[in-house]
Every structure is written in C-alpha cells, then in structure tokens.
Amino acid sequence: MKKIFLFIVAAVLFAGCEKQKDDPTLDRSGFVVITDVIPDAILEIRYYSTYNFVGTRIDGYLQPVALLTKEAADSLKAVSDDVKAQGYRLKIYDAYRPQMGVNHFVRWAENIADTMMKSYFYPDLNKSVLFEQEYIYERSGHTRGSTVDLTLFDMRTEKEVDMGGTFDWFGPESHPDFCGNPETGVYTGDNSKSPAGRSITAEQFENRMILRRAMLRHGFKTLDSEWWHFTLANEPYPDTYFNFPVRP
Questions:
Q1: By the 8 A CB rule, do 4 and 41 touch?
Q2: Roughly how many angstroms between the first and final C-alpha of the chain, as a whole number?
Q3: What pLDDT is attached to residue 66?
Q4: pLDDT digit string, tens, across residues 26-55
Q5: For an engineered disulfide with 34, which of 19, 66, 117, 211 has Cβ 3.0 to 4.6 Å away?
Q6: CA distances from residue 166 to 31, 52, 111, 163, 174 in whole angstroms, order as listed
Q7: What's the confidence (pLDDT) of residue 22?
C-alpha cells in the first residue's frame, strides 16, 4: 500500500511538472528579480500591500518583490545609472503582474458597490465607467513581463520626488500631457481636462519629464494615460501573458 501511495504522489508531481513545462505562461526562466540587477532600487510593491485602488492584496503577489524580463531589467539598470548621475534612485511600484492579478482587478471593477478606496484613487469617477474609460483591462502589458511602474527618489532630500499626483490615480491628471507637452517638455499649465480643476506646477511637470526622458533614452516607450508606466519597446514576449506568481 505504501508503494502504491508513493507511486501516486510521484505521478501527480510529474504531471504537475509536465503541465508547467507545456504551459509557456508559467515559464519564469526569462525573468529576474529587479533588485538582483539594481540593488539600490527602492520597492513599494503596492499590490502586495492593501494601499492600492482595490484595498486588498492582489492575487498572485506572494512576496513584495519586483520581477522583469532579463532584457527589461538590463535596460532599467541603464536608466538607474542615468538618474543616479542626476541625484536620483528608482522607486518601483509594480513590474511583472500575473494574469491572476489582472483577473482580480476585473472582478473588483465589476463589483460596483465596492468603493472602499474611491477617495484615494478615483474621487472624480463613477466606478461604472472604469472599463469604458479604459482604466481597467482584461489584459495588461505588465503581464508580458517588460513593463514597470515607477517614480524617482531624491537622494539629496531623501524623499520621493513630487510628481504632482499619486501612482494609480484614475484621471487625466495622471496623463503625461497634463499641464504640458511631453514631446517638447514645455509646461503650459493647461488643466482644462481636470474635472475638479486640479493642476500641477511647472516643477512637478518637469519632475515627470526627468523620469520620462531617462526611460526613453534607454529603450522604453510611454503610455498616454500614466506618467509612471513604461514598457520596453523591444519586449521579448510581446504575445505571452504570464501567470506565475510574484516571488523570488
């Protein structure tokens, strides 16, 4: 009986390994831990914590670490060296995000009654418009492994750089072109798109541009709706949405 039991256990384990081998979304071999490549990167992994727009830890975030594809991490290291020469360090909010985490976002968005974090992240929006206005998607570039959400940390003041708005704020105030032209880097002060008349200063706009210019210099591309979001232009897995959990 003992031999039969051990045989069954071995068979189950083997089947699990074969399934993982055959499923490319579970293959983490092309990924690295960001802090192994950039040891002085600061991590504030919001989806491991409860301070995020959902208000709970997100599915798949087993440890407060950040993962990226090797190619994206190498390019981010070049960004880190660039901004360090300017007196900054990188602070990372999110990087690789498993599909199970995206699915968690979708379930949350479909539950219109759950507005626990509304005052912090989307005070100007009715939750019912989150899909329509493309704040929540069923697929995310983060899941392909070469997208990172980040900001700058000022080594002189020992504080996070003031970008004029919080990470994951749902609104036009998060757009790179809010109050300025990101292509030219010129501050205009035009806040007409803000439903509540919010604004950012010329200094806050320039802070966003410092991060943007460094990311563009080293092979990343931007997103029109989020100043903190960048994807490696030549990402290695453009068609694969991974689903292994976030852990070292």
A1: no
A2: 38
A3: 98
A4: 999 999 999 999 999 999 999 999 999 999
A5: 66
A6: 28, 11, 23, 8, 8
A7: 85
| Pair 143, 99: CB distance under 8 Å | yes
> Which tokens go with 108?
């949350």
Burial 237-248 (b: 16+ CB within 10 A, else e): beeebbbbebee
What rounded mean pLDDT belongs to the chain? 93
